[in-house]
Amino acid sequence: MEKFPRGKSAIVGAATFGMGEAHGYKAMDLVARSAHLALADANLKLSDVDGLFVCTGDDALSGLAAAEYLGIRPRFTDNNRTGGSAFFSHAINAAIMLEMGYIDTALICYGSNQRTGAGGLVSMRQASPYEKPYRPLNPLSSYALAAARHMYEFGTTETHLAEVAVAARAWANLNPDAFMFGKGELTIEDCISSRMVSDPLRKTDCCLITDGGAAIVMTRTDRAKDLVKKPVYLLGGAAAVWHSNVDQMENLTVTPAAESGQRAFALSGYKPADMDVVNVYDAFSINTILFLEDLGFCPKGEGGNFVAGGAIAPGGSLPVNTNGGGLSCCHPGMYGLFTIIENCMQLRGEAGLRQVANANLAVSHGNGGTLSSEATLVLGTESTL
């Protein structure tokens, strides 16, 4: 833990492509287009890439396919597949390898055409034999269990869940790249009256189904300072896996984020209260509440009250999911990498109307499986080193 290379690597390029609907593009097309854009953003070339980190939902060997498609021969590939948290583990591995001198340039990328090409949600998992007889709508029903338990134990309400969705839409309305941009304001009443999908989660509690590609480029700090864009430094990162299926969770209201967040903040030298921007994987509205609690932004059980009254919306006390999140920006199967890119834009001062003033510290949090794999990155500007 003490040997984590704090601030020794930086994200120097970041890009998305095809968020929303990308007609005519396959998943690997979106990976490649995002990769080219991220490298251009970093003023680097494909030939500079010697570490390739990728995970797609439609190819178990996407590390091989991406190298072939891009026409590169990397020294190392990582195809770790833990769902939406995978890209955080990729960044942690890349930081360690960069510090060791094992690689010089890491490309972390993702793409999915699940909206226009796959006919709905992409799943890489087999149903649990303990859950299958009950015919759950997974992954939705697993998150509904967590929401129901949180309501039972702590008095969390449908209104609290709605606050998360309303805040996400408000941020999306400031983001021209968001799928729900220009779709109008969302109100608490809209949420509570929306269709029930898996009790207690309604339609507005559920993430979008979109296409999208994303990529970031990482290199060592000494090299990062010579590139065009303002580097975003990796100050701390940690991951935790506690189970696979939700029926094996010891406590439906406590996720592995309680471990990954604590370790990531400790490595960074900063606390949750120091963060200027927070972007977490909000596949469902309950996620945001659970992760804000487990990451240490409020005590366990108080997440509902913490998000109430527009506290995480534009103009609130804590900017959360500032691009609109998985609920209102995009959700192409695995959303995790998009939280990192949004924080890069915020820390580089490139977020336009949704820009958080004087943003120097940000936390990204990724979720994989059904609250199974959690991973946390603390990112900062040069002033935070």
TrEMBL record:
<dbReference type="InterPro" id="IPR002155">
    <property type="entry name" value="Thiolase"/>
</dbReference>
<dbReference type="GO" id="GO:0003988">
    <property type="term" value="F:acetyl-CoA C-acyltransferase activity"/>
</dbReference>
<protein>
    <submittedName>
        <fullName>Thiolase</fullName>
    </submittedName>
</protein>
<dbReference type="InterPro" id="IPR055140">
    <property type="entry name" value="Thiolase_C_2"/>
</dbReference>
<dbReference type="Pfam" id="PF22691">
    <property type="entry name" value="Thiolase_C_1"/>
</dbReference>
<dbReference type="InterPro" id="IPR016039">
    <property type="entry name" value="Thiolase-like"/>
</dbReference>
<feature type="domain" description="Thiolase C-terminal">
    <location>
        <begin position="238"/>
        <end position="381"/>
    </location>
</feature>
